[in-house]
């Protein structure tokens, strides 16, 4: 048998016809360990274990806009094209120098089922570049990033563009199932009599459309209801949620005003004279104004409102991920290493939005790091109640002992390190695009603040979660 391993950027071929798989793996890991010595600090492990350091060169996004505003007349691939073109413009990479493109999205536009391919072609990338689309609810572009890491770690690629897009201004609305079945049968009918007979079966109730809902298929519960129940379970008050939401909007406004949200592109809206340059959902209110809003989901006693929940958002993102050797060879200065990552999964009813609480300890244990080693935390904010429930879960002995198999609480991130440039509550949350924003923001914060390690974590529908370690690239 033959095993090929990457070590210092060169391929070593080891032939061991009669060796056991365990011995080959030992050779593999020794080579990987040797090649990581220069760039991997003690305790931090490189993703993939192949010895290839994998780097984030740059990440960008279109402005995240409230649905129904400036992007309303576009198609999703138009928005993703803007992110891809912006990444090329920002980095200067040739459009035929990319080995693979992977894009995340949640609500598919049926005309562009493989939106990665359609966006790449419309952005002018070579038609020789394979493209595929992934979906994993709100962590779809997180999955795009780790898919890119896997392609590079395995030696299949050196240069991958990962991204994501969501377009809530025009979601698919289906005809009712009885009407769909009738129309399909009508298309197959061979005689006028057969067609008239089918048309006679149509009832007024058939004309009721199936409207999309952000709901769990397995439970039938909307995510807002889940957020309300989670907040109640962890004793998160309405005032705490409003205060956290106000914090998010205030920090985002401050960061945007200071020019820190440098991942945002200027996007010329196709078909309009308008060029969008900033997110439009950041609105600093007051606690008094927020307190006037009524519950949005659980009425009349719920605590989730329009002010402390993320809003329906249109937007696209893209990032350039490379092997370190290739990035250096091409003259790029990376922003960060992409290190260990994990995915988690739990009960989609009672623990739907607890991804960060489960992912954070698992990820830090895997990376050999401690909470105090992390300088920057970027947690996805679906609802203020959700993020606060995750923090309380991490700081709970009961939760640790009964749900995480730990002897005591792991501890929550300090607020002075968490989402200090705002988050999804204020900046917006295009489902498929948020992961790239989180990872890019973590890298940019490390560079601005001089930190070493960042931790990104997010929850997603289906009870899913994700976490990844980002390490600042050395000067």
UniProtKB/TrEMBL annotation:
Q: Which residues form the Thiolase N-terminal domain?
A: 54-325
Subcellular localization(s) per the UniProt record: Mitochondrion
Q: In which pathway does it act?
A: Lipid metabolism; fatty acid beta-oxidation
The EC designation for this entry is 2.3.1.16
Thiolase C-terminal domain residues are 333-472
Q: What InterPro entries would the database entry show?
A: Thiolase (IPR002155), Thiolase-like (IPR016039), Thiolase_acyl_enz_int_AS (IPR020615), Thiolase_AS (IPR020610), Thiolase_C (IPR020617), Thiolase_CS (IPR020613), Thiolase_N (IPR020616)
Pfam families in the cross-refs: Thiolase_C, Thiolase_N
**Domain of life assignment:** Eukaryota
Q: What class of enzyme is it?
A: transferase
Principal localization reads mitochondrion
Asked if the keyword Transferase belongs to this entry, the reply reads yes
Keywords of this entry: Acyltransferase, Fatty acid metabolism, Lipid metabolism, Mitochondrion, Transferase
Q: Which PANTHER family match?
A: ACETYL-COA C-ACYLTRANSFERASE, TRIFUNCTIONAL ENZYME SUBUNIT BETA, MITOCHONDRIAL
Family, according to the entry, reads as follows: Belongs to the thiolase-like superfamily. Thiolase family.
Q: What is this protein called?
A: acetyl-CoA C-acyltransferase
Report the source organism: Porites lobata
């Amino acid at each position: 048998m033959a095993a090929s391993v990457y070590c210092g950027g060169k391929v070593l071929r080891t032939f061991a016809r009669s060796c056991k798989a365990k011995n080959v793996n030992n050779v593999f890991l020794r080579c990987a360990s040797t090649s990581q010595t220069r760039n991997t600090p003690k305790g931090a492990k490189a993703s993939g274990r192949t010895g290839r350091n994998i780097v984030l060169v740059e990440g960008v996004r279109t402005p995240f806009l409230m649905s129904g505003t400036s992007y309303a007349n576009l198609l999703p691939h138009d928005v993703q094209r803007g992110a891809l073109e912006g990444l090329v413009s920002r980095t200067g990479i040739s459009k035929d120098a990319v080995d693979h493109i992977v894009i995340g999205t949640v609500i598919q536009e049926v005309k562009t089922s493989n939106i990665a391919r359609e966006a790449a072609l419309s952005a002018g990338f070579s038609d020789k570049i394979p493209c595929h689309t992934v979906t994993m609810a709100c962590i779809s572009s997180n999955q795009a990033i780790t898919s890119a890491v896997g392609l590079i770690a395995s030696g299949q690629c050196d240069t991958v563009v990962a991204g994501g897009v969501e377009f809530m201004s025009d979601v698919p609305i289906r005809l009712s199932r009885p009407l769909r079945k009738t129309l399909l049968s009508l298309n197959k009918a061979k005689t006028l009599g057969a067609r008239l007979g089918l048309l006679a079966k149509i009832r007024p109730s058939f004309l009721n459309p199936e409207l999309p809902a952000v709901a769990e298929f397995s439970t039938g519960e909307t995510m807002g209801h889940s957020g309300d129940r989670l907040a109640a379970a962890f004793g998160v008050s309405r005032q705490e949620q409003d205060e956290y939401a106000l914090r998010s909007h205030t920090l985002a406004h401050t960061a945007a005003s200071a020019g820190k949200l440098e991942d945002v592109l200027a996007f010329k809206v196709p078909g309009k004279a308008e060029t969008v340059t900033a997110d439009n959902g950041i609105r600093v209110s007051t606690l008094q104004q927020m307190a006037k809003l009524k519950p949005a989901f659980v009425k009349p006693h719920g605590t989730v409102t329009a002010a402390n929940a993320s809003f329906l958002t249109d937007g696209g993102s893209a990032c350039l991920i490379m092997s370190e050797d290739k990035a250096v060879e091409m003259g790029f200065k990376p922003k960060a290493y992409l290190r260990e990552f994990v995915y988690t999964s739990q009960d989609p009813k009672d623990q739907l939005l607890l991804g960060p609480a489960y992912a954070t300890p698992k990820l830090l244990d895997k990376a050999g790091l401690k909470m105090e080693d992390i300088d920057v935390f970027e947690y996805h904010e679906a609802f203020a109640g959700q993020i606060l429930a995750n923090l309380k879960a991490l700081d709970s002995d009961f939760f640790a002992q009964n749900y995480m198999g730990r002897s005591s609480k792991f501890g929550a991130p300090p607020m002075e390190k968490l989402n200090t440039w705002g988050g999804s509550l204020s900046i917006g949350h295009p489902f498929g695009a948020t992961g790239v924003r989180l990872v890019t923001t973590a890298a940019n914060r490390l560079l601005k603040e001089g930190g070493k390690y960042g931790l990104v974590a997010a929850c997603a529908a289906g009870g899913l979660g994700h976490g990844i370690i980002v390490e600042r690239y050395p000067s």
